[in-house]
Amino acid sequence: MPETFVIAQGGGPTAVINQTVAGAVMEARKRYPKARVLGALHGVRGVRDGRFITLSDLSENELRAMAATPSAALGSTRDKPDEAYCDAILKGLSKAGADAFVYIGGNDTAGTQSILAEASGGRITCIHAPKTIDNDLVENDHTPGFISAAEFIAGAFLSVDLDFRALPGIYVGIVMGRHAGFLTAAATAWQLEDDGAPHLVYVPERPFDRSRFIADIRATLERQGRCVVAMSEGVTGPDGRSLVETLVSPEMLERDQHGNIRLSGTDLARAVERMLAEDLPGRRARVDTFGYLPRGNIATVNETDAREAFEAGVFAVEAAERGGGSVALQFGGSRTECRLVPLSAVAGKTRHLPDDFLHPDESQVTGVCRDYLARLLPRKFPVAKPFV
Amino acid sequence: MPETFVIAQGGGPTAVINQTVAGAVMEARKRYPKARVLGALHGVRGVRDGRFITLSDLSENELRAMAATPSAALGSTRDKPDEAYCDAILKGLSKAGADAFVYIGGNDTAGTQSILAEASGGRITCIHAPKTIDNDLVENDHTPGFISAAEFIAGAFLSVDLDFRALPGIYVGIVMGRHAGFLTAAATAWQLEDDGAPHLVYVPERPFDRSRFIADIRATLERQGRCVVAMSEGVTGPDGRSLVETLVSPEMLERDQHGNIRLSGTDLARAVERMLAEDLPGRRARVDTFGYLPRGNIATVNETDAREAFEAGVFAVEAAERGGGSVALQFGGSRTECRLVPLSAVAGKTRHLPDDFLHPDESQVTGVCRDYLARLLPRKFPVAKPFV
Q1: B336 and B369 co-located in one domain
Q2: Cβ-contact B372, B181 below 8 angstroms
């Protein structure tokens, strides 16, 4: 019977990651009325440095208010612990008297948990609870945080579609996503008609070719008189290098201390604007960088997403009794259920858009992808077709 | 007793411009059961080319569905008619048998109406109904379309605030607005606390100075450990030239056929990213271009905005009996009311942020501005303060 739970949040915040914390605290309180639940501030960094708050002291109302608020209430971190760091984390957990550690995050977080589970030799039960707007965790049908971010994207592209029917032109929306195109594909979730916006979708899973891109837009303009494009920040050229790297002149590229290119949506937007100006001169074109706007947007917190994130937290505490592991949201054919999978099955792995989600010949998603998105995110708003 | 109304929509679409059309059609139907109401497709261009649909044939349900849908259902135009164009418009109106012409748009639209009213010698009653997310119409307390766009901005900056408490850094959101900073100022509407995000606000009404900008950010980082900035696309340097023009190297600037600089949010975002990289090296920084996202976003259609836009359409039809003019939303001390003002009072004029809306010493808005925003846009979402 665990006496002390430690909960932490890692990686980029989402609209519903606090629901998972609330679910875990409420379930721990129910199962183990005497147990303490500590929240580590700024993820494993707070565990290492001994910075905790006592979540089990919060009232149910306080927990519900926290759950309904986007972003990570405990703070987050992007630290990727090495061996020494992991030792320090384990020391921090022992010092806090933790029997169980619930770490909410993506595949890096699962990786950290996998290392800690092994290093602790079973003294501390390690549970990974899923979270990422990128929807790129293997073993999961979808991840908490994705549906809310996808709702922002779907609504934005529906709105841009209506806007560009009124004042035709070319629109390109640059959407977060370095390796997986799920969020960009979500731009099609609320399409008004089969050939509605976004007319073209470019994701990291398919090589981007400039001449193909321009030809796609030309064809769409001829068909529709307007062209709306959804593009991932992480689209890569035929040589596998990021498009930004391929298109932006070297002296314009910003690099971090390790010499890695800082892949900024603005760099890509700028490159795309120049492509359009050069190859389609005189055409009205606008490129926007969505950036962080979809991530934890308070205007698009999705109810299903919130409920599933809460349930993932509840299940994470149940999982402590079963020796820990990674909580996975899987689709049973009728509904989404939490299942426990080994940490090693998720750690460090990236899930990509399945092949049958992407049209083989067109820069567009398939019916299989549309069905998947329709299941997660049915359209919320009735829309009257414009007269133009 | 008018027999034929013509309605058109001009300039950039908004979330509620269709409410104004619906209000006008329903009021015309009520007052003049026999009257026809025609909708011109793509503004005065449709009038000139004789492209109309019969709005009075639509059922109340069809009108309400159209009203609830963002963007301009009739299509819009950015044409600025010269004398010959205006003659063609008047011919088009006469051909359609119009006694009254309701044109929904901004100050350019009011300008067109003012020319048409004079040229038609009173044969056709010209009414301008207000619409602009920029909130830059004189004689108006605020304009239909602004509150919904402001709601998007307010929610976005509140969400970014929460995000950057979890993972501190520098964030700059570039907001539409070439000459007026109302929309950018709206970033402060839902601030969590006095010194909450956006910590800094830069608008076209105040000259932008790079060293001041960097000093502002440094001071905020020292105070808060993070810094969130709201910046207008149209910020200008001390010399009055647009910041983009001042900062971007000439060969990088895109110009249209007339040699005018294409002021793109991306150009500014790129310039700001480079400033931060050069003057605050190693700091985590992100710059996003909101662009069209706030304009007619289906996720942030504001109820007050929708109602006022509808009432502006109703009032526009009433105004036909009074010889036409420009419909203005004015604040009576307790509520917003539609009043009729001369077209010449609004035509071609730009309303700027009042001096007392902007702090004299800090890059921030004043309490007067906060009170104004709180009156238009009370916070919608309860938020629990994060633990970090």
Answers
A1: no
A2: no
